[in-house]
């Protein structure tokens, strides 16, 4: 099966049209964001009205010049007319500028508001949300999707107002010259609008799809270049290129379909306009012939020019519809995230409570990422204050889930977790999490200095406190050895730390707030002996006098634990001290011997790799 | 810089490479692109021929208006319409057909050329020695078949057509204008350099502002990327407020930078419009004076103001196209660099591969 199969399915399932009713609710939401900026909207209306008025003057006075000056010979009027054309033209320029700027600024603010709201909502999402979605996807909603919204917001009011005021004022002038000849633009303009609307409504979704495919192709290449070594070993190169080509073909086909629609519809507006103007020439000339001077040359020019000028705001208007299709799709993707229900939040009546002892009880805890398949089933045990509990089990046995339930990164489905006898849901989330230190499996550092990273856990920490935590976490000597000491930058633009060093920084970060309870997801199983020793000593130091839960990969950690909880299939199957469990001759003993001592088991029925 | 030593990694991917000067002449690059386009010779020929015919039929329209006014309407000789109407309609419809053929065929060429280039790159990426992938920055490699290819694609799709169309429109307009009246045509020509200079200057200004805004925006994206990648840390340390404050500050910086760029970009089109208008006024003024002396008819005056539209907008278009051309050339060179990289371990042809049992 090709590696590109899921990608290909995704690409083929992309919709090329979406209904307008679907986007009506998005429009309502978008309008709500405009509320704060009503002054900008009013300003846009005023600017648009004045601009429309000025915009009608040039053709009008051009026709005056032709009729009165050139044909009529009133040359003393020429300079005055020219001045009016010049002033009105510069005025149109100034007002256009002001409109573009006012709307652009408003759009910046509105997009900022949406993005802020989006960001805030992301901060409140629980771990289960992040388990189910890629960060890249969330980012693209805030960038690519909001760009589409911006593109719409910065033009939509002006485009609509311009279309209304311009078209209306031009029709009034044309009607005053000749009601019958006004029928010509009255017939052509709706057609122009219709065809250009079809153009944009049909192509915009295709362009968006192309953008989406390109994004997917990019991540496809990324995955396959990163995973290149594996690919080479298994000799799947041809397969990969084939997959790439197939997806690319969909892209090319989409682009060509869009091209075909553009080729058909794009020139229509110009053609219709040209034919309409021809009609004006012919009609005017014919009526002039039969009934004396019904139309002057200036009238004809004026009609022709107005028709041309009228077609611009109409074409803009239909393009706006296309822009909206993009914007509404983007906005929906953003709001979809913003609207996702929070799964973990403060319960009514939650309080700021202090953990004094640090006793943690699990009572019949059942939990699953989906209701049908529990990851943890009726887990019950108690960690006494200051006790260090090692948690042992195969991948997928629910170890991480268990400890993440304590600071409520997830909530239990049934049962409860008590700290000092109080249900964790009675704590305010912020007060709970502040008192439960966490060292995550993923040793993530933010760009910034080492000091910044350690102080994250207590933003107002002094350098002494940072050093104190660093010493406990056994990272102090390393920090001192760096050229900039604690102010050395880490991350992409700074020094690169090894996994072990990063882990100790994250331990220091968790310790600086001096939590009563500490949970550690110690994932670094393959490190050299020296690092192993340093991490071990950091862990020993960090866990002193704190109730600690530690997912352990290494023997030393497990043996040094006060008690050990052995997990299998979401249940605690054994719980006790090392010697107790060894005496019990159960799973622990078998794991201990096979994993850590390398002895062959008598019968190997232990589950490998979870499900 | 975290990478060791100077950038000796061929077509890949150190940071300094992004700012590297181009070494291959445009002509060579164009020839190689043509090598790809040659596979679609028929479309290319049809497309380019239609581009010229589009601009030719487009240029005929103001001239037809001139004829209608001077030969039919002003003299009141309505029988002229018997030839004028069919010719005008045919020209207009032909213009539609040429535009259709041109848009579609050039799209075919553009998409296929880029897709062929992209395929070559993918195959190359598969066969190049592994060592590049551990040394180079992956993101930059990926940008080749995606971003660079897209730059080329946009250029071939819109740019090339526009350049040809605009250039022939401009030259054709001036040709027609000189044909109608050399004095007015010279006036139009004389006013060009000033407009071009102004537009070029403002364009430079606006590009600088946009580059700056783009950098700040990239910073915002990076901030978000980091905060989301580290969201579990942020939540576990209860520093959401702290992170939000930093994010909002970055947002405000972005808004500020964008507003500054907006100030400049919003003035771009109005300025161009005003410049065009000054041209129109000059033509009307001088034209009206010339009418007294004789030689210029009303039809010519009207046609002139239309031709002025026909060369002014394409000219402005060309100026923005110049930028697109530059970045397309950079992208094309990088793509060929990659395609030309020699594979260190060359794959045996399929039929000679030894299948292990």
Query: What is the chains' assembly state?
Result: heterodimer
Sheet of most strands of chain B: none
Q: What is the string of helix and strand elements of chain B?
A: HHHHHHHHHH
Strand % of chain B is under 5%
CATH topology of the domain at 23-181 and 296-341 in chain B: ABC transporter transmembrane region fold
CATH topology of the largest domain in chain A: ABC transporter transmembrane region fold
* CATH hierarchy: architecture of the largest domain in chain A: Up-down Bundle
Give unreliable regions of chain B as ranges. Answer: 1-19, 346-357
Shape designation of chain B: globular
The amount of helix of chain B comes to over 70%
Distance between the termini of chain B: 47 Å
Structural class of chain A: alpha/beta
Quickly give the structural class of chain B: mainly alpha
Shape of chain A: elongated
The Cα radius of gyration of chain A reads: 35 Å
Number of domains of chain A: 2
The counted number of beta strands of chain A is 12
Q: Largest interface, with Cβ-Cβ < 8 Å?
A: A-B, 108 and 98 residues
Low-confidence stretches of chain A: 599-611
CATH superfamily of the domain at 23-181 and 296-341 in chain B: ABC transporter type 1, transmembrane domain
Q: What is the CATH architecture annotation of the domain at 23-181 and 296-341 in chain B?
A: Up-down Bundle
